[in-house]
């Protein structure tokens, strides 16, 4: 998290929506083998619990149950040239970004909860593809589905700490920030430019 408190994101509902929209991130944990990370999709099971699954063979998996996990969702980002501010000398390059860190206790799921989490994840993602008819596991051979789920382990991350950062040039006057957003967008980083304009 950025040390400047003016950049800290405090709105948990907005952070929750941001994580739900991305639905993907990196889960970090300290293990006896050293720090490990898994890149994976997530769903909200309730207002403070993420559901996720990890390949059984992933080096992080056997260490997760009962451990402290750190999930990081990274949104759009982009380089900001000082030339775009139009303020003359004294400005330096920077990087703007949006990110959320969720820290909490990891709990292994029972098999039925894992299946429910997979179904929730696919239903949420398939809904985004409308008007396409949604995929459901009914389209799979049941034995193939069973084999697939035996290769993964489901976990809950019970969130105990929320840390968000919105580094969008909010320390600059609005006109300067908007001018920088134009430059960022022209460089091909439309996502972060949108966030810079939406403050």
Automatic annotation (TrEMBL):
Q: Which ranges form a coiled coil?
A: none
The protein, known as:
FMN-binding negative transcriptional regulator
Gene3D superfamilies according to UniProt: Electron Transport, Fmn-binding Protein, Chain A
Pfam families cross-referenced by the UniProt entry? FMN_bind_2
